[in-house]
Amino acid sequence: MSKVAVMGYGTVGSGVVEVLLNNREVIAKRAGEDIEIKYVLDLREFPGSPIENILTKEFNDIVNDPEIETVVETMGGLHPAYEFVKACLEAGKNACTSNKELVAKHGDELLKVAKEHNVNFLFEASVGGGIPIIRPMKSSLTADVIEEITGILNGTTNYILTKMRDNGSAFEDVLKEAQDLGYAERNPEADVEGYDACRKIAILTSLAYGKKVDFEEIYTEGITKITAEDFIYAKNLDATIKLVGTSHIVDGKVVAMVAPVLIRSDNPLYSVDDVFNAIYVRGNMLGDAMFYGKGAGKLPTASAVVSDVIETIKHKGINVMSGWSSDKQELLDFADSSRRFFVRVKESEGIVEKIMSVFGNIEPMDMGIAGECAFVTTEMSEKEFNEKKEQIPGIITRIRLSF
Ligand code: HSE
């Protein structure tokens, strides 16, 4: 019998309890022993719930109990999640978390503490919810040099962009509808501004290259400026618009960003719609691989957390997750990274000539939208594009191309 504690009985924490109780037999078979939830830590009361009698408000009950082998951290946020997880690892307990903020900010240190104490710090659910991606990257893609990781890493924004494309709706209208349906938070900033995806691509990139990527250094742009008209142009390019977190290697340096990009129909990420997530990985031997599934939600996320709990029980006293070191991963200056750009400009006297004289060789686009003109540039650096953009009056928008 292995005894565990769940810290935080919110959406994911209650899902973890549900998965452990509903799948108890099959989980016991796979873990090699039965799992008992001894404590649930939460400051709230849950009268009539299945955890009523194991609820505690005292973290010390858990960290000081030698019977607890593994803790699940589903509180979210950095504090006190960081202090609690670190104390549990130092007390010789394994920790499994769904908390991407915690992993992106303190993953290097917590991995080190786990190693020093011969326990495991696991975080499968922190990226892609229920999609197995952390363990495959750590255990299965080990023969390859990873050349690129590009993911649709946020379900909320993927849902919003899908509805904008399909219904021709405005961002604000779809956001409101998504909030009413419970797909988007009342405070949607972390999702729509790309901060959530930024932490996830930081984790994947750290894992791929073995050094800590500082998420604050990743260029991050959200979807709030995308409009229904942008999708009309996208369709004409045989493309759609997706918020991606992406990293790849240029001249030995990592280029990373989170931004809405135009993705053409021949890209496997093109068909990833609604709240689904997908992570495309290119290895130098493997070629292309894509991991697809539910990137959010109570039970898919809880399923990934419980898979980590099983992993800790199967590997008692063996540290299986090397993860990444505290050495800093150098990123290429984002201004030096190159791509093509789609640009919309307000129509004015002589504007086409001006665009051609500044940008040179362009692909003009005419979708019959009154009062504006649009074009696609050749490949150029962000710096060069920004310098040229400054010379064009009335820029409405610009979106990066992934092709
Ligand atoms: N808000 C996140 C999303 C939840 O929409 O994908 C999962 O991290």
Task: Give the structure's gist in a few sentences.
The protein is α/β, with parallel strands linked by helices. The chain has helices at residues 11-22, 24-31, 59-63, 81-90, 100-116, 134-140, 155-167, 171-180, 189-192, 195-209, 228-236, 298-314, 351-359, 382-390; strands spanning 2-7, 35-41, 55-56, 68-73, 94-97, 121-122, 146-152, 211-212, 219-220, 239-250, 253-264, 276-283, 287-294, 325-328, 338-339, 341-346, 363-365, 372-376, 380-381, 395-401.
Structure overview:
With 403 residues, the chain is an alpha/beta fold. The chain folds into 3 domains: 2-129 and 298-328, Rossmann fold (3-Layer(aba) Sandwich), CATH 3.40.50; 136-294, Dihydrodipicolinate Reductase, domain 2, CATH 3.30.360.10; 337-401, Alpha-Beta Plaits. It has 14 helices and 20 strands. Strands 7, 9, 10, 11, 12, 13, 16, 17, 18 and 20 form a 10-stranded mixed β-sheet that branches. It has a 6-stranded parallel β-sheet with strand order 3-2-1-4-5-6, sandwiched between helices. Strands 8-14 form a two-stranded parallel ribbon. α4 (81-90) links the parallel β4 (68-73) and β5. It is elongated and about 75 Å long. The protein starts with a strand and ends with a strand. The model has no long low-confidence stretch (mean pLDDT 97). Bound molecules: L-homoserine (HSE). Residues 129, 154-156, 191, 196, 295-296 line the site of L-homoserine.
